[in-house]
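Notes from hallway chat w/ T.B., transcribed later so I don't forget. T.B. wanted the structure written out for a chain they're using in a teaching module, and asked if we could keep both sequence and C-alpha cells in one place. Agreed to drop them here.
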Amino acid sequence: MHTILSIFISLSLLGPAFLPMASQFSVLAENETPAESGNPSPDTSNPDTTVPDASAPVTLSAPSALLMEASTGTIIYEKDAHSILHPASITKIMTLILIFDALDAQKISLDDVVTVSEHAASMGGSQVFLEPGETQTVDTMIKCISVASANDACVAMAEFIAGSEDAFVAQMNERAAGLGMKDTNFVNCCGLDVDNHMTSAYDVALMSRELITKYPQIHNYSTIWMENITHVTKKGSSEFGLTNTNKLIKQYAYATGLKTGSTGLAKYCVSATAEKDNIKLIAVIMAAPDYKVRFADASALLDYGFSVCRLYQDTTPPALPELSVRGGTDKKVSLSYEGTFSYLDTAGNDLNLIEKKLSLPEEIKAPVTQGKEAGTLYYTLNEKEIGSIRVLYDTTIPKATYQDYFRKTLTYFFSL
C-alpha cells in the first residue's frame, strides 16, 4: 500500500524575458591573412528536450547551427544541426575534455611539466611555436590551447596523457561515443583538415555542454583575452603573447568561451558560450562563409536565447521523511534527491503555476540498497508533467537474520 504525499508549492518567477541586443563584430580568425585583418597573423550529459519549432525564430547566414541551454540540454534553435562537416579547431573542445578528465582522475596535475616532441613542434596552422625539447606546465599548455588555439600544445598534451597522438585520438572517439556524438569521427587532436575528420553542430553542442558543466573551470582559461607565456629553450628565454581567437570575449558582454575554428574545408566555426542571469547558453556555428558571419550569427543566437529563456531551478524541494523499513537490521532509512531539478521555459509561461508532487511508499521491505530509487518528485505546469527527479536511499540496510533478531532480543532483555 502506497501513500502519495502531494505538495503544491508556489514558485517565484525567476526573471523576465530579456530583450535581444544587436551586435556587430570585426574580428580576426585563426587562418586569416594580415591583409584581411590589418594585423599580423599568429603562427585554431545528452540533451533531452527540444523546443517545438526550434528552426523558426532566427535568420542566420551559416548553413548549420544550434543553440542549447547548458543545464537542461534543451535545444532552443537548430538549423541543419546534423550536417556532417569539418570542425577545424573546435575539435580542441574534446581534447580539453580529455585533459580535464586526466586532471580530475589525478593522472596529471596542473604543475606537471610537459616536454615538447619533434612531432608536436612540427604542427602547422595556429601555434605558439613550441620547440622540440621545450618544457611547459600543463596549466600553460591549457592556456595555449584555450586562448591561442595552439596545435603544437594540443599534440604535446595528447602525447603526455596517452603516449601518442593516435592513442589519444582513440580516447577522443571513445569519449565522443559515450556522449552520444553519432555524427563524429576524430582523426587528430587539433582539427587540421584531413579525410574523415568530421562532426556536426549537434555533436559540438554535446561536447561543449560536457566540458562547461563537468569542468566549469575551463572558463578561467577561455575568458582570458591576452596573456604572455615564456619560452625557455637552448636559445634562451623569450616572452610570447597569447591573444584569444574568440573575439566575442571582448565584444559580447556575457561571453564565457568557448572555442573557434577555421580551415579551408571547415570555413569559419565557433562554439560560443555565454551566461546571463544564471542562464548558460551554447551557440554553435558551422561553416560560416567568413569570420564576421561566424561571430554575428553566434551573437544573434545568444541574443535570441536570452530574450526568450527563463530557467527554473528547484533549490527548495520538499523535505524528505525517513522511511520505515520492515524486516531490516535498521528500522528507518533516510532519503535524498538525486540532484537539482531544472526546467527551461521559452514560451512565456507563468512559472508561479509549477506544482510539485512527491510520491513515496509508506513502508519498504528490506533489503535496501544505497543509491537505489525510493520514489519520485514530479513537476507539473498547467496540468502537464514537465519533468521529475528521483528520490534515492542514503544507506544500505541488509535483511535481518535470525541472529540479528536474537541479538536484539538479548539486548532488550538485559536492558530491563
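Follow-up for T.B.: The chain has eleven helices and 20 strands. Might be a good example for the class.
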